[in-house]
Amino acid sequence: MEEKNDKSPHVLSASSNLLGLCFIVLTSLRVLHLDGKTIIDECTATALLMFMLSSILSFLSIRSKRAKSDQYEKIADIIFLLGLFFLFATTMLVTFNIIK
């Protein structure tokens, strides 16, 4: 029996949820007219791109043949983890008033 895509559905789910969170943050900054005054929107947009790319690669991993599927899954995992670290670092910098 072929074991396929153990992590991809989980990465797809988590990255799409975090993608939605990034959209909410960007929209909130826009509504509060803080989008041009802080670096937070640029940091959030960068995380958004990472989660979007991770979502796409996870989806491709689920839908692809075995050889390409493994490649897509590994790349999606790495990009997802980078996005998590980036979002965490941004949150910590905002929390400790290092960036405004």
What is the structure about, briefly put?
By secondary structure, the chain is an all-alpha fold.
Q: Average pLDDT value?
A: 86
Gap between N and C termini: 53 Å
| General form | elongated
Radius of gyration: 16 Å
What's the assembly state of these chains? single chain
Tally of helical segments = 3
Helix percent band: over 70%
Poorly predicted parts? none
Main sheet overview? none
Number of domains: 1
Number of strands: 0
SSE order, one letter for each helix or strand: HHH
Q: Please, could you describe this protein's structure?
A:
The chain has 100 residues and is mainly alpha-helical. The protein has one domain. Helix content is 78%, strand content 0%. It has helices at residues 8-31, 40-63, 66-95. The longest helix has 30 residues, at 66-95. The radius of gyration is 16 Å and the shape is elongated. The N and C termini lie far apart (53 Å). The mean pLDDT is 86.
What are the SSEs and their pairings?
Layout: H1 8-31, H2 40-63, H3 66-95
Which key terms come to mind for this protein?
78% helix, single chain, 100 residues
